[in-house]
Amino acid sequence: MKKQEVFDKVARALMKQGEASVPADYDPDSAFACRYRIRRGTRTLKCAVGHLIPAKLYDKKMEGATAEIVIFGGEHGERRFEDISGECGLQDVPKGLLADLQEVHDDYLADDGIDAWRVQMLRIAGEYGLNTDVLEEPA
Fold it and tell me: What's the count of helices (H) and strands (E) in the chain, helices before strands?
């Protein structure tokens, strides 16, 4: 995927989802409260990067590790992650873009809601030279 495709996919998915991928008892002060995937009732919520990870590659051990480590490989504590960027189609996407998309999910969508998240998505688009038309689409 290209940067624009990643941005559009994440934006559409999170606007449709309408809420962050956090536990029902979410505490904004707790570290790593957001989840790549979490079941809430009959729904499976995903974070920004969670929407980019195919179901066959998702593993619960990813929870708590950074997007960069989960996608591009590395170590998080005792856990070792292989590079899955190619399998996700993300090998040519800047690591910083994934980290920024994850950050605005965790820090703005989870804490401040969709309007604050949208403002931050506009900022990210400006930093990476991306088109923002997707943010005007209905959810």
Answer: 6, 4
Domain extent listing, the chain: 3-133
Q: How many CB atoms lie within 10 A of CB 19?
A: 14
Which helix or strand (DSSP H or E) is residue 79 part of? Answer: strand 79-81
C-alpha to C-alpha distance for 10 and 42, rounded to whole angstroms: 21
Helix (H, G, I), strand (E, B) or coil at 138: coil
| Model pLDDT for residues 93-136, shown as the tens digit of each residue | 999 999 999 999 988 888 888 999 999 999 999 999 999 999 99
Listed residue (93, 90, 92, 116) closest to 103, CA to CA: 116
pTM above 0.85, yes or no: yes
Beta partners for residue 38, in sequence order: 45
Nearest to 63 by CA among 20, 33, 24: 33
Amino acid at 119: V
Three-state SS at 78: coil
